[in-house]
Amino acid sequence: MKFLFWNIHKNNNIYNKIACLAVNEDIDVLMLAEFNGKPSELLLELNKDKIRYNYFPDEFCDKIHVFVTSPKLISAIYDSPRYTVKSIVSPIIGESINLVILHYQSNDLTKTDKPFLYN
């Protein structure tokens, strides 16, 4: 299985670049951080030549979006605003593996935004 995690930093006008990379590299699990676009629009680009990808929505995790080629092999274990945990059946080992996808908080926050880091 091939995995790709990409923080696109809200550059939602690069659907064609995302799709080109995912399709050409035969990515099985595409994970995008800071994706503020419409998953349906990206799916159109990902599946332009052939239907490959499905969107795997998260109820609580709005920072990470997951697109998969085999939706039957993936299930949600836990979702939170900044990370999500998935179970994926690995065709290589024939068992489930846990995938933790995390989007760290930005370093650009002001001191008042992160008081727990200061005395």
Structure described in brief:
With 119 residues, the protein is α+β, with helices and mostly antiparallel strands.
CATH homologous superfamily grouping: Endonuclease/exonuclease/phosphatase
What is the CATH topology descriptor? Deoxyribonuclease I, Chain A
For the record, give the distance between the C-alpha atoms at the N and C termini, rounded to a whole number: 45 Å
- The H-and-E topology, N to C, reads as EHEHEEEEE
Task: Please characterize this protein's 3D structure.
It is a single chain. By secondary structure, the chain is of the alpha+beta class. It has a single domain, classed as 4-Layer Sandwich (Deoxyribonuclease I, Chain A). 15% of the residues lie in helices and 32% in strands. The chain is built from 2 helices and 7 strands, in the order E-H-E-H-E-E-E-E-E. It has helices at 15-24, 39-46, and strands at 3-7, 29-33, 54-56, 64-68, 74-79, 83-89, 96-102. Strands 1-2-4-3 form a 4-stranded mixed β-sheet, covered by helices on one side. The chain has a 3-stranded antiparallel β-sheet with strand order 5-6-7, with no helix packed on it. A hairpin with a 6-residue loop joins strand 6 and strand 7 (96-102). Helix 1 (15-24) packs across helix 2 (39-46). The protein is globular.
